[in-house]
Amino acid sequence: MKNWLKQRRTALATVLFLTAVATAATVIFLHHLNLIIATGDLTFHLSRIQGLTTILHSPVNFETFNHHGYGVNWFYPSLTLLPAAFFEALTQRLVLSYTLYIWIVNLATIGIAAYCGTRFWRNRTSGVLFALFYLFANYRLSNFFYRADLAEGTAMAFLPLVFLGAYELFWGTGRPNSGWKLLTVGMVGILYTHLLTAFLCILLLLCLTLGALFTRRRPIRTILSEGIKAVSCTALITLPFWGPFLREMSFQKLNHPAFNQLLAQALDPTTTLKAAALNQLDQSNLGLLGLIAITLPLFTLRKWPAAAKWSYGISLVLAFLTTNLFPWQWLQNTPLVYLQFPWRLLGLQAFFASICLVECWHWFRQPAGLKIGLVALALLVLSTASFSLLQTDFTRIGSLKFTTADTSQLATMGEYYQYDYAPAATIPYQTQATQHLFYLDGNWQTHPYHVTAAHFTTKISLSAAQTVTLPVFRYATTQATVNGHPAHVTAGKGGLVGLHLHAGTNTIQIGYTYSIRFYAAILIALLGCLPLLKRPQSKNRNV
Asked: What is the DSSP annotation of 359-382?
């Protein structure tokens, strides 16, 4: 009984400690409840959060993204962003909701990392150390507090589940028949958050699979069986995203995100090492922790366990691939061009580097409590210094400042992003679409309109029947009514919504709807979760 109470007290103390650290890591960077200072994707993700507040009524929110009916939720997974939308609907304060969401993600990241680390090393101290190193990884912090890339930063929370699941699947440690479940949960979380991170995970998992063929501890038949379970369940559970996504992709040609010259976007080794030594957040780099994780193991690697040695090798390869020392020009015409920036590999590198840092700390003989306290204090001080340096960088290079008062103008901010996955035919007509021009009576002209969250409404009076074009994106599930009656939506000028109207006054309402197939996909996804809930049957043993 005493041991049980001691274990419970220790577990509670660990949870409280991790919560306090995650909270401190949030407050250091986001301590203004009415102001966000960042760069990059800030307005894009704020618009996504605002748009999701009406997701139960309509898949598209006309009050965001310049009122064009941009179908962002069909192309950018949004399930894990729903907590932010819930906070926004509850508080009506977008900046506060953004901050609370990052706090929740920090809690999830440190909690998942601690669980996976404890299970991997079978030691709670090691698990907590891993969680601390991973939470304060430079690239993870930069995603949230400099680049404002909520999706990529959130996806990193699920990486420990993916690779712990793969480790147990191939090498059979941990509980029987559970590796594939961890792998499934992790991949589902990433697929519902950030497709590029999922793409990189799949590539790395394929490489690990090849390596496992020669080093596996489990029968190939078992690995194959559980691997098929993981792939099948992941596909079924994520069907509510893939179904609409593939439908829209096949409905018409869509504009894709910009392709960059990969070699030009790769990191210069000298510049990135200097930035890493300073732990700068305004440049993509390994960070000080990543730099230590590459150099310190050179003195202790020989006595590491095999899995840790593999982690070190993978972290080295990933770090090398982020630089222009690798001939990225050879891969320019391959699917890897969707990566856009080779330094995105730093997210995976941070995970394996955190494993290496824990192995390095195993060689220090301080008491567990002292070791954890020193690491947490050092990381908080390092983050505070990085925040101070980041403020100087913001002054030097500029930044995006968003206040609560800016919420009403958010719909017209970040104009660039709304044309990723817009109808390709619309791109030559960006000017007309941006200015909300209607094509009627043979020319582009302004016309009054009104938007609510779910509908775009206008009234057009004509002297003769004609086909008009409205400044609304046309997708597979676009629906329209004219004078209260369903109307056939055609492709108008520039791939925008076209409607054939009769002479007289036409009251038009345009919206989007969920198809029956979407609701069927949700049901299938729920059924796909059932194998994850099934407990493995215990084998009877003869005593």
From this structure: HHHTT--S-HHHHHHHHHHHHHHH
Give the length of the chain. 543
- Residues 430 and 471 sit within 8 Å (Cβ to Cβ): no
Three-state DSSP string of 274-323: HHHHCCCCCCCCCHHHHHHHHHHHHHCHHHCCHHHHHHHHHHHHHHHHCE
Helix (H, G, I), strand (E, B) or coil at 338: helix
The C-alpha angle 245, 251, 253, rounded to 5 degrees, equals: 95
pLDDT in tens, 165-177: 999 999 876 566 6
pTM: 0.93
Q: Are residues 128 and 272 in the same domain?
A: yes
- Give the residue from 367, 175, 342 showing the smallest Cα distance to 267: 342
Could you give the CA distance from residue 241 to residue 254 in angstroms, rounded to a whole number?
17
CB-based contacts of 44, cutoff 8 Å, min separation 6:
414, 417
Enclosing H/E stretch for 499: strand 496-501
> What is the DSSP pairing of strand 456-462 with strand 504-512?
antiparallel
Answer yes or no: do 314 and 374 share one domain: yes
Cα Rg of the chain, angstroms: 26
Residues 399 and 439 in one domain: no
Two tokens, residue 527: 């059924």
**Residue 461 and residue 388 in contact, taking contact as beta carbons nearer than 8 Å:** no
CA distance 531 to 524: 12
User: Given the DSSP bridges, would you call strands 400-403 and 456-462 parallel, antiparallel or unpaired?
Assistant: unpaired
Domain count, the chain: 2
- Domain range spanning residue 494? 424-517
Shared-domain flag, residues 40 and 169: yes
Is residue 497 located within the same domain as residue 396? Answer: no
Kindly state whether residue 464 falls inside one of the protein's structural domains: yes
The reply to whether 133 falls in a domain is: yes
Residue 413 domain flag? no
The answer as to whether 235 is a domain residue is no
Beta bridge partners of 497: 470, 491
- 361 and 490: one domain? no
In the chain, which stretches have pLDDT less than 70? 1-2, 4, 173-177, 365-370, 396-398, 412-417, 536-543
User: pLDDT tens for residues 457-513?
Assistant: 999 999 999 999 999 999 999 999 999 999 999 999 998 999 999 999 999 999 999
By C-alpha distance, which of 174, 157, 156, 155 is closest to 165?
A: 174
Secondary structure of residue 501 in the 3-state scheme: strand
Per DSSP, helices labelled H in 156-305 are 159-171, 179-191, 195-215, 220-237, 239-251, 262-265, 269-277, 287-295
Our CA dihedral for 449, 451, 457, 462, rounded to 10 degrees, sits at 10
